[in-house]
Write a structure and sequence with these properties.
The protein has about 170 residues and is an alpha+beta fold. Helix content is about 30%, strand content about 35%. It has helices spanning about 5-30, 40-45, 95, 105-110; strands at about 50-55, 60-65, 75-80, 85-90, 115-120, 125-135, 140-145, 155-160. Residues about 1-20 have low confidence and may be disordered.
């Protein structure tokens, strides 16, 4: 098998896996109901969260990361009564608009979840975090946040994801 044929085959296989994972998430979401489903129900469908964020009102937000292979990150809030009170897919333009210069890395992580990539640029004294997302219906995009040496947001932007190869 030629390298080109293998790469095309591997790419098709990866795409099929991503579609299947997205479908699995959609099915899991349909099985949950706000105000009814418990944290145990959420964990049974989504597994262990990447991070658990305590909220000021005593509730907790469970972070489910689908990066770098996927295009979504979920934040699922469990109220003080132990029931799911919100399920949000956070990689979307309305959340990207909330990113402002001066915000901390923790604030960004809490808002968008773990990034697909983190890159440090020593000469510029900057760090970039990137998330993969889909601009409907199918345009693959990247949202990029640039932090200065103080760990605070300098700028952010969305761009169409560049494709490798032919």
């Amino acid at each position: 098998m030629s390298l080109t044929h293998w790469l095309k085959s591997a790419g098709a296989s990866l795409l099929a896996t991503l579609v299947m994972l997205t479908g699995c998430d959609d099915q899991r979401i349909k099985e949950l109901e706000e105000g009814v489903s418990t944290e145990q129900d959420v964990r049974a469908r989504f597994g262990e969260p990447e991070q658990v964020w305590p909220e000021a009102d005593g509730s907790r937000t469970l972070e489910y990361n689908r990066q770098p292979a996927g295009h979504r990150n979920y934040m699922i809030t469990i109220g003080t009564d132990g029931k799911m009170s919100a399920l949000r897919q956070v990689l979307a333009p309305h959340n990207f608009e909330k990113v402002q210069p001066g915000m901390t890395q923790e604030q960004i992580r809490r808002m968008l979840g773990k990034p697909a990539r983190q890159m440090r640029y020593e000469l510029r004294h900057e760090t970039e975090w990137e998330w993969n997302w889909i601009d409907p219906p199918t345009t693959e995009m990247q949202f990029i946040v640039t932090f200065g040496p103080d760990g605070l947001v300098r700028r952010s932007a969305s761009a169409e994801k560049l494709r490798d190869g032919p």
